[in-house]
Amino acid sequence: MQSATALLRGNLPAEPNSFIGRERDLAELARLLGDVRALTLSGPGGIGKTRLAIRLARNVIADGAGTGEDTEAAEGSGAPGARGPRDDLDEAWLVELADWRGQTAQHVAATIGVREEPGVPLAQTLAEALRSRHMLLILDTCEHQVGDCATLVQLLLARCPWLRIVATSREPLRVRGETVWRVPPLDLPPERADGTGLGTHEAVRLFAARAAGARPGFALTEDNVASVARLCRTLDGIPLGIELAAARVRALSVEQIADRLRGRFQLLNSGDRTAPLRQQTLRATVDWSYELLDEPEQMLLRRLAVFSGWNLDMAEQVCSDTLSSDGGIPADAVLGLLISLIDKSLVVLDGEAAGDARYRLLDTIREYAAERLAAAGEQSHLSLRHRDCILALVEDTTRGMFNRGEPAWPVRRATFHRGIAEYGNFRIALATSLAHGHAEEGLRLCAGLRNMWVPHGDAREAAIWFDRFLAQGSGEVSPRVRGRALACRAEIAFDLQEYDTLVRSAQDSLALSRAHDDDFTVPVALRVLGQAAARAGRLVDAAAYVDEAITAAELSGNDWEAGLTLAAKAAIAVRQGKLKSAQRAYEAALEVLSDNNHWGIAMVESGMGTLARARGDDKMAMRYLEDAMEIFRELDAWPEIARCQSGIGWIAIAGGELDLAHQSLAEGLRLNQMCGQRLGIARGLEAFAALAVARQQPEQAAQLAGAACQLRDSLGLSTGVGPKTEQVLEFARERLSAATAAALFAEGREMTVEDATRYALGSQPLLSIPASTGATRRAPSPLTPREHEIVLLITQGLSNREIADELVISPATAARHVANILAKLGFTSRTQVASWATRHEPRDRTLPRGCTRGRGSSAGQYAHRNT
Known about the structure:
About 60% of the residues lie in helices and about 5% in strands. It has a five-stranded parallel sheet with strand order 2-3-4-1-5, with helices on both faces. The chain has a two-stranded antiparallel ribbon with strand order 6-7. Helix 7 links the parallel strand 3 and strand 4 (about 165-170). The chain has 41 helices and seven strands. About 50% of the residues are buried.
């Protein structure tokens, strides 16, 4: 089975059709990515920014196995030792921001799979998670929240030395180190060029390719190539305009299209000319395409603007009219109209989800359609229809997902993945409810989405939406809806470790639910209170809450909750040392959930694996954890997979299966690193320390134990040297000496998280030299050889211009090297670099050619000379 980490290498979408032209642009952008770490593709809508960014990412990642030339420009890249992007980038992620209105960091983290850490700002967790990754991050459509994007980009560039960011925006982000690249139109033939060579120009090639897709058999000929060239010039080489025009060859000749467009632009030129020329050109082209539609097509196109993406059923529900005699759209006409809009390049087919074809509008077309919807006076009505459609979808899904019997698990699993595809629509529906003050509908949406948000790692987003609607007051919300929402909010608070909010929400939920006879919600609130008490160490209180919850679940007929409460009872019994009681409770939970949602089965099996380990039955523990992990893989539940792999690794260590232990622990450690779970990383380092003990490697064991201990301290979770760590240190003392073991442990505490992780995984050997030799082990440096030369020049007090003179490079290149050194070392001043060099640079390192030692040899002298 493919490892989870192999699947976490990017999310670039498949290209909907062939990519035409821009070969020179792509070559220049790839070269730029070797020199800069923040690249913004800027330009008007329809110019092709997103498509270009995705193709650039594909090219860069595809070239990752190649080698580049050792050029001066490549030395200045943001990656240690890189010669260009192809040498070090191994993953690319696309974050689409067009429909996002929250914090940029939240959406980036959710897209990449980084989970929030309790008590830590999400942006900080994200930066730590990406610090060691060789990633190309595409932030698409930044213009509507450019300030928040800029803040995040600045943080990530400062904290993640191997990261490169490509943004697409109609305006620059204006962050330090940003290079803005204006996306040009496609290459056009000269005004008076004849037929020879016209077909080689990018704009003409794009028209020909799309026209052939719209009308099979279309080809450039001596008779039409001049008209195509003239048409492309009329459209200023804007890709979207060319594609819209090419879609019309099904019904019009090239000459007819050109003549109609010329008339449109003559009308445009007589009107308002304040907008940029290319923006006017595109607007006129979209206007022309829209006005060529018949009235039902126009109506459907503008109504589709309420969606983030959709399938046929959703379009029929939201966009059709019950009575079509007044010129509306009957439901059975939607499919035909949709096909017509696809043929005209106004709607894009966007893959499949749960067996249904998905559709979307390009951002520029969607903006235009939304304007038309508002002008038609339909925006509020259609937004509410969209919200009602999504609410019905969510509640129908919830009813079918968490009951015994049908549907079968493959259907439920597909529904879960389909829900992920609807995230944009969920947010639009929530925003609509908030804007209209519809707190009841908003809370119903939140309650239905709770079991989508939590497995997907979006507990913080869930908390934000719950709190917004709960704050709107209870006057317009039924007690039953509010009580259920409060119980869900308590569950979210448990995941976020917000225990005051948990207790308040759960107690308010209990009071409302009991007062209004909502027996279905009571066990949820009681279970969460029990789990919170158990986490606080109040096991007697926890058991009492959970026993009451079990009784309430049985009385209400809530099978899903009955299974969860039994599993909670078992977990508490394990903590109490009542292993037989725990076994009975887990078996009962598994029976109740056996034909229910398999997420619950996986959670129970994971707990049974822990119990089997406690009972010394490693074979059964391994089986339970592997079974649970199989389900978690089906749901892309990365942190849960990591926990299972950790358990398997510990079992394998105990059984002497050290290769299996390394394989399992390695995947768990990588997943925790990718998801930004530093507590999970600390636990993984502890496990690798135990593995080193089993492999009779006392140096590595002591160092990894020190690294794990330091990471726990940095998270405020220090418990001192625990039993596992003490066992590791005792082993090291016996094999080495007390002094050597202590020194190695101290060295481990000095490691960065990235160094310790690489060391554990075996990709970065940090073999200590025995203390008796008097030598000191030096950790690998993140700097390139040229950057080490520049560090030495910085210690001599040289300015950027003086460094450039010494190394015979340009001042701009010298400044870029200095900026990269600061980023890689996490410093903000050259004084810090000079201080670092006194500890890390060998005293006998040769200075660069032409340098002398007489220019000031201390950081103090440098600080005095260069402020």
